[in-house]
User: What shape does this take?
Amino acid sequence: MKNGPKTKRPRPPRRAASFNVRAKSTTVPSAYRVSQNAQKNYERYLELGCAEALAGNPVEAENYYQHAEHYFRSMSAVREKPIGVRRED
Assistant: This one.
C-alpha cells in the first residue's frame, strides 16, 4: 500500500430541487379548495376561542374569534365572486 494522498471518487451530478412536488388537480377549481381551507380554519379558530372562553381567558378567546372572523370573511368573498365571471363596475 502506498502512503500517498488519497484520491476521491467523483460524485454523481446533483439534481436540481423540485419545488412543485405535487401535481395540480384540474378537476377542482382553486376557489373551491380555498373555500374548503377557509372553512376548516374558521371552525378550528371557533373551537379554540370557545375553549379559551370556557377556560376563563377572554383575551385569548377574542384573539381566536378575530381569526375566525377573518376566515369567515374570506369564505364570504369567495362565494360572492362567481368563478370566471368579470363584473363591470
About this structure: The chain is about 55% helix and 0% strand. The first helix runs from residue 30 to 55.
